[in-house]
Specification:
The protein is 62% helix and 6% strand. By secondary structure, the chain is mainly α. It has one domain. Strand 1 and strand 2 form a beta hairpin. Helix 1 crosses helix 2, helix 1 crosses helix 3 and helix 2 runs antiparallel to helix 3. The protein is globular and about 45 Å long. Bound molecules: zinc ion. Zinc ion (ZN) binds next to helix 4.
Length: 97
């Protein structure tokens, strides 16, 4: 059990790093009203996120040390987090009702 929990925490921590890179690149935006993360549907920004990630790995940035220099794992994680972020935040959904 303990081991499963630890690896889940690690997965969450890695997803948090991927999300922060996506936000930095503008591929994911945080709604100023409901604080939810929304997919900006901007493939150019996604490419910028990959570039930022690669640069961070090259620089051995401590923010990405959990990935232990594994570029592919980091970019795969960014890709999956990007795909999982909602296209509409809570208030947009409410507005469109
Ligand atoms: Zn919102």
């Amino acid at each position: 059990m303990g081991h499963i929990k630890r690896s889940l925490d690690l997965k969450e921590a890695k997803e948090g790093i991927a999300l922060s890179i996506l936000v930095k690149a503008g591929a994911v935006v945080c709604c100023e009203y409901c604080d939810e993360y929304v997919n900006n549907q901007d493939d150019e920004a996604l490419k910028i996120a990959y570039a930022i990630a690669n640069k961070m790995v090259s620089e051995k940035n401590s923010d990405v040390e959990l990935f232990e220099g594994n570029r592919k794992e980091l970019t795969d994680c960014i890709k999956s987090v990007y795909a999982d972020v909602a296209w509409e935040c809570h208030c947009e959904i409410e507005m469109n009702k």
